[in-house]
Amino acid sequence: MRSRTHRYEGSRWLMQCAIGWVLLALMAFGATAQPAAQAKSPAAAPRTILVMGDSLSAAYGLSTAQGWVALTGAQLARSHPDWRIVNASISGETTAGGVARIDAELKRHRPAVVVIALGANDGLRGLPLKQTRTQLDRMIAAAQASGARVLLVGMRIPPNYGPDYTRDFEDNFRTLAAERKVALLPFLLEPVALERASFQPDNLHPTAATQPKIRDHVWKALAPLLK
């Protein structure tokens, strides 16, 4: 009788030990698994490059995918997957239009970098240079106030309005970049400006085949801002 009781007590003791070991194992697993689960976090949202431009950036006469902005987006996907590009360019846009729109675009996209590529239509219309400069300055100031870095893209125009206007128009971009301490690309079309075959029949807008050259030209000034 005593032997059977001892066997019973021994079996119960072993069962209790086994339950205890299981509980300890579960507690240990939970302690190690919880930090691992906490370590997993959703991927950070990509940072944004916002392009505020005119028809030269809006892929006028082309499909959107053929323009230098979209081509830059494809390059970002390959080399900087933590970045994306948003094209807020509008054909025919002047600096006045850019000033009117930039606050809303900054609020909507919260960009880390803003590319300002406006002014060409101001020059083609012979608008007052001081007015163009003031409006570009306001755009730069708004972008900087939002915490974004700025790339100012310059432009040159034909000498239709005389050498003084042509020279001072180009100098506007250099002066603003120096005063606001922002990156400057002096002339968007520099790689192709002297190649007639690089332009559509209007002799103003680059062809699709030319867009990769413009992308590469912009990229040299843009890439340092992504670091």
Question: What this model shows, in words?
Answer:
Helix 5 packs parallel to helix 6 (163-180). The chain has 2 domains: 1-39; 47-226, SGNH hydrolase (Rossmann fold, 3-Layer(aba) Sandwich). By secondary structure, it is an alpha/beta fold. It is globular and about 55 Å long. A 5-stranded parallel sheet has the order 2-1-3-4-5, sandwiched between helices. Helix 2 links the parallel strand 1 and strand 2 (83-87). The chain is built from 7 helices and 5 strands, in the order H-E-H-E-H-E-H-H-E-H-E-H.
How would the blueprint of this fold be written?
Blueprint: H1 2-39, E1 47-53, H2 68-79, E2 83-87, H3 95-109, E3 113-117, H4 120-124, H5 129-145, E4 149-153, H6 163-180, E5 183-185, H7 211-222
Parallel strand pairs: 1-2, 1-3, 3-4, 4-5
Helix pairs in contact: 2-7, 3-5, 5-6
- Any idea of the CATH topology of the largest domain? Rossmann fold
Q: What is the average per-residue confidence, as pLDDT, rounded to a whole number?
A: 88
Largest sheet: 5 strands, parallel
Shape: globular
Number of strands: 5
Relevant terms:
227 residues, alpha/beta, Rossmann fold, 2 domains, five-stranded parallel β-sheet, 7 helices, 5 strands, 52% helix
Outline of the structure:
By secondary structure, the protein is of the alpha/beta class.
